[in-house]
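Bench log, entry 3. Co-assembly request; chain sequences pasted below exactly as received.
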Amino acid sequence: MSARPRVVRVDLGERSYPIHLGTGDLDGVGDAVARHTGANQVGLVTVPGVGRRYGARVVRSLRAAGLKVTRVQVPDSDATKNLGQVRKLYDRFLTAGLDRKSALVALGGGMVGDLTGFTAATYLRGIPFVQIPTTVLAMVDASIGGKTGVNLRQGKNLVGAFHQPSLVWIDTATLRSLSPRDRAAGMAEVVKAGAIWDARYFARLERDCDRVMELDPRALIPVLERACRIKAEVVRRDEREESGVRALLNFGHTLGHAIEKQMGYRRIRHGEAVAIGMVHAARRSEALGLAPAGTAGPIEDLLARLGLPTEIPRYDRRAHLAAMKVDKKKEGRKIHYVVLRRIGEAQTVELSPAEILPARAPA
Amino acid sequence: MSARPRVVRVDLGERSYPIHLGTGDLDGVGDAVARHTGANQVGLVTVPGVGRRYGARVVRSLRAAGLKVTRVQVPDSDATKNLGQVRKLYDRFLTAGLDRKSALVALGGGMVGDLTGFTAATYLRGIPFVQIPTTVLAMVDASIGGKTGVNLRQGKNLVGAFHQPSLVWIDTATLRSLSPRDRAAGMAEVVKAGAIWDARYFARLERDCDRVMELDPRALIPVLERACRIKAEVVRRDEREESGVRALLNFGHTLGHAIEKQMGYRRIRHGEAVAIGMVHAARRSEALGLAPAGTAGPIEDLLARLGLPTEIPRYDRRAHLAAMKVDKKKEGRKIHYVVLRRIGEAQTVELSPAEILPARAPA
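Structure output for the full assembly:
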């Protein structure tokens, strides 16, 4: 039931960094943090549940590596990801004496990573940070690529910075404490990686889906590794979302964000909204003649096997259209919308919100 | 009385940008903004005094270049440089529909540039921005090099980002509306450029000092140009303050910041505090045997001719020491303090706050 640790390198010149993937090796993180950040003091940010389970082990490992640690807990809710919380973190870290030779460490899911990363990006004009993701979503997506940010009342991630971590440390054993619902939600981004980039990987997911959900490391580690490699490759080709390659990662996200916004972020998981958005985008790809018939079906089936929703709940076309209009991906009037050409290959097309959500409710 | 515009290039690879130096050519800024940012919409940030004098001209020039303009005025005080103001700017720009193809333009002094630059660095994870500096300080220092940021109650510039502008547009005619005190304060950074980097330039300042203060373009433009070139060269060698070269720009700033903090930012100009800090650092350089006797004298004389203070007002060693300890340049216990080896050559040494401010009041 065990597997050797793997390392995926995110290749970004002087901003390159390794993603370590192991099982049950959280105790090794301290040495790696010291080595990759050069820090002598760290601020560790986590949420209560994760902190209770893993906080003491991480703190012990950091201290054993000679690091002074200031531990801060933030409320476990996406509503925590705001400027007020960033300001509280600045205060805590100034009081603790964190200086330019210090680093931040995010222990938790995507929210903790985004919040901590943005704080690191802007504290004293930027200090290093490390991600210890404890959700599937954070492992394969949020922790890789340097997107950090917080929400405004007008929308998600409207404020942020590109700030690459110095290290991502994944211990898949931390996934055991995740609820089945959260585990499944995270798998949406794994399915996305296959759908937009790698048909063979998609087939592997269809085959290994059940063992992955049971967290069998022999199935899980290779699946997470490949998802990380795909994300790393996309980020390497287009670090700052300029050439359009990175935009492919938005597959399922345009409608997904609108659904999250319309339902309220507490009531639907990001991955669930993205699952619905991917099925919708795959169906639209077929309907617009961009992908062959039969493209959406396997995606819908795999997501359903993972226990993810595939239909828009409480469909309200006007509300969803309005939500899309403040989406930060909007440029001018048209929206860059990611469609599939087939499973394993995506492209961006310019569509108006009305073309994305046609007047008839999506079939 | 006129002089041809000059262009100084800040050479930072894909983040390179030009500094345009002219006199009376504010009307040309719109085309340059459109060309260098690629934006179709801009947010223009300014303060009441500058806005009243130059706002309409800049807006007209931007609109003539086909740009949609949202103009925002912020209070003219360093206290404006805070996170609450940044949040207000986010709100205004979201309401105005600024997207990733938009840019910000800062029209004013260093405060406006720092605030606008930080907002641009973090709005939608970063959009381009242009500096139109209207003070000497902003022209030769604050607008060049990509340091952006805001103050926290604990200290100045504790939050920020490195975000290079796409263009700096200097029209020296805008200096005419500056009070003599503000003009002089800005010259402190010009003197600094000579003191740390270029003895011949320092000699030129001694020669042309009066004509520069009268804003004679034939003396002023070459002086500003050389100061910009020195700043650009330092930034090119050490964009993110990593190798120590950029730290030389902190000459006079360690004590300067402490004085500003202790007196309150409203009661002393940044340049005045830096002038005092430079004289102190030059004297300490002599006292520590790092620079030959007679190094501090000419600096003190030149600053005095410009009407700048050279002695610490209301000296309070304990308060100044305390203020230095939260300076963000602090690393570990010792402070990187910039001393002179001679006029035109500086170096950083590690000193404790007590070595910088010896127990006896500085002579």
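The CA atoms of residues 20 and 36 of chain B lie 12 Å apart. The two ends of chain B are 43 Å apart (CA to CA).
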